[in-house]
Specification:
This protein is an alpha/beta fold. The protein is 57% helix and 12% strand. It contains ten helices and five strands, in the order αβαβααβααβααβαα.
């Protein structure tokens, strides 16, 4: 029996969470797992993913927009997201390629909205403009105590012989990161059909397995078909 077009369509999965929880590593690992199951997929990030969006990313993370305030940063993120959706996300999904993104619109809600104090109506308007109907099918929120996350980042930097530096957001005070974590958890509670919260306190292999289980349970028909 043929599967329905809806069942066969490509999926859009986003990863969210505070600083240092391991999103980038797990996006790569999920990509590899999907490819091993013959699922075509690409990974990307926000802000970024396209040349124009990457230029905005550099401007923001270098702290050059900080004096403009959270509202202006939300507009910049939306501009980057609009180009990202139009140039990378939408075309890949239309061609049957899954898209995995390290951050997406929930980060704007958490960083500039719930933590930065930007009015929810502005956030919603920018979100509607930028997404243009391309909301994620699944959002994986990696959750971890911020203090423990930064300790782990520092330990790994020492192990790798790297200097510990922070971008525009990593340099915020611990209280700010605690509020950010609360913001992501609030988003997950408000969107239970889309969001899954997974503890990032476990080791990389255990976290990878938990994420794969969540994806397999959410899209069983696609993954079963890919193994045939």
């Amino acid at each position: 029996m043929l599967e329905s077009p809806k069942a066969n369509r490509a999926r859009f999965i986003t990863f969210e969470g505070g600083e240092g929880v391991g999103k980038s590593t797990q996006v790569k690992r999920l990509l590899q797992n999907l490819q091993q199951h013959s699922v075509q997929a690409v990974r990307t990030r926000e802000p970024g993913g396209t040349p124009k969006a990457e230029a905005i990313r550099s401007f923001i993370l270098q702290g050059r927009s900080e004096s403009w305030g959270a509202g202006a940063e939300a507009v910049l993120f939306a501009a980057a997201r609009l180009d990202h959706v139009n140039q990378l996300i939408a075309p890949n999904l239309a061609n049957g390629v899954w898209v995995l993104s390290d951050r997406f619109h929930d980060s704007t809600r958490a960083y500039q909205g719930l933590t930065g104090g930007v009015d929810d109506k502005l956030i919603a308007a920018l979100e509607s403009l930028a997404l243009d109907g391309h909301a994620p099918d699944l959002t994986i929120v990696l959750d971890m105590d911020p203090e423990a996350a930064f300790k782990r980042v520092a330990e790994r930097a020492v192990e790798d012989g790297l200097a510990l530096t922070g971008d525009r957001f990593e340099k915020e005070e611990l209280d700010w990161h605690i509020r950010l974590r609360d913001g992501f958890l609030a988003i997950a509670r408000a969107n239970p059909d889309r969001c899954i919260v997974i503890s990032a306190a476990q080791n990389e292999e255990a976290l990878e397995a938990a994420i794969w289980e969540a994806v397999s349970q959410r899209f069983p028909e696609l993954l079963a078909g890919s193994q045939a």
